Amino acid sequence: DRTAEKKKEAPKLALPDAQIVTEVTHWTDRLFSFRVTRPASLRFRSGEFVMIGLMGDPDPKTGKVKPLLRAYSIASPSWDEELEFYSIKVQDGPLTSRLQHIQPGDEIILRPKPVGTLVHDALLPGKRLWLFATGTGIAPFASLLRDPQTFEDYDEVILTHTCREVGELTYGAELIKTIQSDELLAELIGPENLAKLRYYPTTTREESPKMGRITDLMRSGEVFADLGVPALTPETDRAMVCGNLAFNLEIKELLEGYGLEEGANSDPKHYVVEKAFLD
Ligand code: A2P
Asked: FAD-binding FR-type domain: which residues (predicted)?
């Protein structure tokens, strides 16, 4: 009969809010990224996050299974037809111990309700935009850096990324390379806009051209000397911060020291902060 036929045609998705994994890339033994189908109705602002995950294990008492969800920044730009995520792999992490094994064709749960503060709407107009990331905190910036508005709104856009080891910089380094060399992106963003992009990667536990925590390099003035820009001021500079908790707190204090104030969607100011997800 016809209903049965129809059912056969459309693949039955096992999970609620299911999306299909289309691509998985393992960057290091601690980091991977993946792409999934995008719900047709999902609109988001570059820099926002959604809850994603898998079904959890059955509750030992009741046998019930509940979704195991975590907040993940969308790493892809809002014009992309798929969604990209960048994740840590924690061997005993409730979600990522399992999520790291996903393969193209697998299903994940994606709650289509994007939110977050790392958005242009939460910042007042300015001349120079600083994107400060550690580890997987680069994910929301991977979205913002592929959004033309990021370049249209500022004269200069500086991405700093601090990781323990050199291999952990690869995802970001590849992203920057793609932004600067991909014809489609270049056309979309505009060559004059691409010239505004500066990239400042640093490592803390393995030798690389620039070593040290970005916070220390700010305090010493080294990052400003390297880039040939003055220290941040509320008159010209805006900042978005995404990293581990200790980093977020430390850089917040630094930014406040420069006179910048924290903004929100409802109250745009000079900088915004969000915690990078750590399973
Ligand atoms: P460090 O190696 O000195 O701890 P993680 O992988 O633990 O999330 O760390 C990512 C990067 O963030 C590491 O390079 C780490 O440096 C750095 N980091 C950790 N805490 C701070 C902090 N309070 N301020 C600046 N950078 C930090």
From this structure: 14-121
What's the mean pLDDT in 81-110?
96
Residue nearest to atom 27 of ligand 1 (CA): 247
Q: Where in the chain is the domain with CATH 2.40.30.10?
A: 2-115
| Closest Cα to atom 6 of ligand 1 | 135
Decide if 179 contacts 145 (C-beta within 8 A).
Answer: yes
**Residue 237 pLDDT class (50, 70, 90 cuts):** very high
User: Is 33 near ligand 1, meaning CB less than 6 Å away?
Assistant: no
Q: What is the pLDDT of residues 26-42, one digit of tens each?
A: 999 999 999 999 998 99
Report the complex ipTM. 0.98
CATH number of 2-115: 2.40.30.10
pTM summary value: 0.94
The pick from 88, 90, 132, 134 for probing ligand 1's pocket by mutation, whose C-beta has the most ligand atoms within 8 angstroms, reads 134
CA distances from 215 to 161, 244, 249, 252, 255 (A): 11, 13, 11, 10, 10
Looking at the predicted structure, is the pLDDT value of residue 257 above 70? yes
| Residue ranges matching CATH 3.40.50.80 in the chain | 120-275
- Specify the range with the lowest mean pLDDT, choosing from 7-16, 55-64, 83-92: 7-16
Give nearest CA residue, ligand 1 atom 19: 247
What is the edge-to-edge ordering of all strands in the sheet holding 31-37? Answer: 67-73, 49-55, 107-115, 18-26, 31-37, 82-88
Hey, what CATH class is 120-275 in? alpha beta
Report CA(32)–ligand 1 centroid distance (Å): 19
